[in-house]
Amino acid sequence: PPQQRYLLGLSPQGGDGDEDFNQSQMPTHSQVQRNLERRSQDQVNQKVSELVQFLLVKDQKKIPIKRADMLKKVIREYKDVYSEIVNRAGKTLQQVFGLQLVEIDTKHHIYILTSDLPRAEGENLHRDNQTAKLGLLLIILSFIFMKGNTAKDGAVWEFLRRLRVQPGERHEVFGDVKKLVTEEFVRQK
């Protein structure tokens, strides 16, 4: 079923960098629950946020996501609660961003993010500046949410630069981005 495709903990096998995380080492559901009890919710939630950010950056760069990279670069010492972290990250991606984590290579455990949002057709394709500004606002608010509800100005600007929205340059849709973010969005709270 489609829902199970993003639940990465359901079908792990060794190979392609996953040698240290094979079927025999995969904790059962009850073991994961016991392991979760030993970890603070803040620690687990932090790992979920880090994994969501990692997946979004990989997706933005259009790089397929390897389970081995998730384990090595994000999950690290939390392998014992790997499936729970991935499941929570999958739910966050779906609820916040309308994205689903899909396994495209079951042998090497490679994943991509796909959109769950309905395709826009006809009148829905019409975009105006207010819709575009709302989209930018939602991206910024999502970034702040993923940073634990607070983010430094510098981190927000760096994030926008990665999206090719430069604070010092006039944007063809948003106009003066710095003014839009620091004045208009702030004024709207």
TrEMBL record:
User: Which GO CC terms are listed, alphabetically?
Assistant: nucleus
PANTHER family associated with the record: MELANOMA-ASSOCIATED ANTIGEN MAGE ANTIGEN, NSE3 HOMOLOG, SMC5-SMC6 COMPLEX COMPONENT
InterPro entries, alphabetized: MAGE, MAGE_WH1, MAGE_WH2, MHD_dom
Q: Where is the composition biased (Polar residues)?
A: 22-34
Question: Where do the MAGE domain residues begin and end?
Answer: 44-189
Q: Transmembrane stretches, by residue range?
A: none
List the residue ranges of the region (Disordered): 1-40
- The protein's name is NSE3 protein
